[in-house]
Amino acid sequence: xxxxxxxxxxxxxxxxxxxxxxxxxxxxxxxxxxxxxxxxxxxxxxxxxxxxxxxxxxxxxxxxxxxxxxxxxxxxxxxxxxxxxxxxxxxxxxxxxxxxxxxxxxxxxxxxxxxxxxxxxxxxxxxxxxxxxxxxxxxxxxxxxxxxxxxxxxxxxxxxxxxxxxxxxxxxxxxxxxxxxxxxxxxxxxxxxxx
Length: 195
Description:
By secondary structure, the protein is an alpha/beta fold. It is 44% helix and 12% strand. The chain has eight helices and five strands. The protein is globular, with a radius of gyration of 16 Å.
């Protein structure tokens, strides 16, 4: 991922964005670095161990104040498989004492692009327009993928929701984050320096 450095103020709040998938989990670290945890289908459920180990290491190293996770897809064929990943990652977040919020895909897309049905290309274009960031190799030739981009937007949504935005956004797009159930009282605790 490439783009401008963020302000020191945004660095005092450590948020990690997670776009969970058994095949390719997108991660955006508190410093804005985005990457994928890729697994091989032939490894079966052992892929869960790969993801768990990588998430555990990221949480231990970066000690986020908050994780923002893309919620399970509603009515999607792959929701059961993705639920396995959510269970493993939720346990790691709980063990590390990291509160987390779940953001449904349509809300994330609405926040990023003002369109709840935006495709992956539009999400990437919106990230470039908002902050000049790019995610080389994140989309394939068919415009599929976008795991790093989604994780990056999840992190940005957390910053916005806690009143420490990383960049300017139209208020209508910020307002859609009110639909998210943020950890109870978390914003107030952060503002008071108790996070």
